[in-house]
Specification:
Blueprint (H helix, E strand, L loop, with lengths): L24 H16 L5 E3 L9 E5 L14 E12 L3 E8 L2 E11 L1 E7 L5 E7 L21
Antiparallel strand pairs: 1-2, 2-3, 3-6, 4-5, 6-7
Length: 153
């Protein structure tokens, strides 16, 4: 189901998010489907549960729309449930970022070049992966929705 995207200033974007109960697969599947459905009609590469009004630690990332600039994202799609950033590289990179909760605003930020993330995928299998950080900074704090631009570290 396509849900409305909550905009900057919405209270839900300031609430502390909770870990998802991994025993409730039906609710997880429904939330993940709603995220994909909503992202499909939005102009973005990722969406977190708080952005559709749900204070759960779930996010999706779809880099396939950015292959012209970043060919390595050709098949990059992820569902991340209860993600935790384990490591950040010391090397920094500059990125131009936007956020679906702050539409039509883009700005340059400096981020660590890579991160290592532990999360559960849509099959509830634990994963640990290292990623280019371009899509994840907006969700860095883990238990709260951090709007792009509010965290400069």
């Amino acid at each position: 189901m396509i849900r409305p995207i909550y905009l900057y200033g919405s209270e839900v974007l300031r609430k502390t998010c909770q870990n998802v109960d991994l025993n409730d697969k039906e609710a997880i599947d429904a939330l993940v489907q709603d995220l994909w459905d909503t992202l499909a009609v939005a102009d973005g590469c990722g969406l977190a549960a708080p952005q559709i009004g749900v204070t759960s630690r779930v996010l999706i990332v779809d880099g396939t729309g950015m292959v012209e600039d970043m060919p390595y994202l050709k098949d990059f799609k992820r569902v991340m449930i209860n993600p935790v950033i384990l490591e950040e590289s010391d090397q920094k990179c500059d990125y131009s970022e936007g956020c679906l909760s702050v539409p039509n605003i883009y700005y340059d930020v400096t981020r660590p070049k890579a991160i290592k993330v532990e999360y559960y995928d849509e099959n509830l299998e634990m994963k640990v992966e290292e990623f280019d950080k371009f899509c994840f900074e907006g969700h860095k704090k883990g238990d709260t929705a951090i709007v792009y631009g509010e965290s400069s570290s």
